[in-house]
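The following block was generated as part of the benchmark described in Methods. Ligand: adenosine-5'-triphosphate.
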Amino acid sequence: MKMIQTKNITKKYKRYKKQEGVIGSVKGLFHREYEEKIAVDAFNMDVDEGEFIGLIGQNGAGKTTLVKMLTGIIAPTSGELQVMGFYPNKLEKAFKQQYAVVMGQKSQLFFELTAEDTLRLFKEIYCIPEGEYRKNKNFFVEMFQVQELMNVQVRTLSLGERMKMELIVALLHNPKILFLDEPTIGLDAVASKQIRTFLKDVNESRGTTILLTSHYMEDIKALCKRSIVVNHGRKIYDGDTKMLFEQYQKSKRMTIYFEHSVEPDVPENCRILEKTNDKLVLEIPKQNTEKVLESYIGHYPIRDIGIEEEEIGSVVERIYKGV
Ligand SMILES: Nc1ncnc2c1ncn2[C@@H]1O[C@H](COP(=O)(O)OP(=O)(O)OP(=O)(O)O)[C@@H](O)[C@H]1O
């Protein structure tokens, strides 16, 4: 079954363009000038049941607008769109009961309530039968190991703990499709990894279709078999994530923290991105990762080392240039 089908969907926003200064404000009272912004441009995408898809692109590429159209928050300006056979913007009850959306920057929890009471409230909102509610709640609470957090006020939870609760709330009613917009934003490495493990498990064990938007290439690489890259509202890549990385990712980012101030050598082909007395950040060709690691470990007093995937911006640039 096709979970998502879009044909040439386009979203044009119209925004008021104010002229500078007081005179501009007064002029604006009589004659308003608007500018048009095409946030999503003739976008086609098909998603099958059970897929785990990554939606990637730089700031302002149009990802959130796309997710908003798919979840019915806004309607497209033109084009055809269906999610599980529904036109999302009609917001039919049967549609709402089959999808969930989690936005890393926006919470749907009730901060004054405890996590337990919040879940119960969502049980009522979604009319989840008692047996199913208990089964799902226990399953997810166990999976995330958050038993001891259930009776504390949501406002006291850390960012990572709150995100776990957001996901449990979103999945309580067994949605067939889950839209995630930056679920690991601001989280540390441990919490991000826990979230990733959880999402992988949900997709595999429950067959939930997941569309994930993230700036973090680690999330995409670890979770999404297929990726869609968006740039200026247009799709510029749609295919295998592994291929995307093999073809277009050329370097990694290595951060080395030293025990004390040192003057380290920098291997050739590496570019210094940041340097302080006890910290060095390098851009290194991805095939040289091991060699570069070897040149530091055992040779310098190292406190910690981190290796990250290349930023999406550089990958997008290469897709564009075709290199
Ligand atoms: N309500 C709006 N009115 C006018 N323009 C908008 C509106 N919402 C978004 N835009 C513009 O549409 C473009 C796409 O925005 P969108 O939020 O979809 O991008 P994004 O890929 O999600 O970015 P980010 O990663 O920064 O969240 C941007 O140029 C943005 O300024």
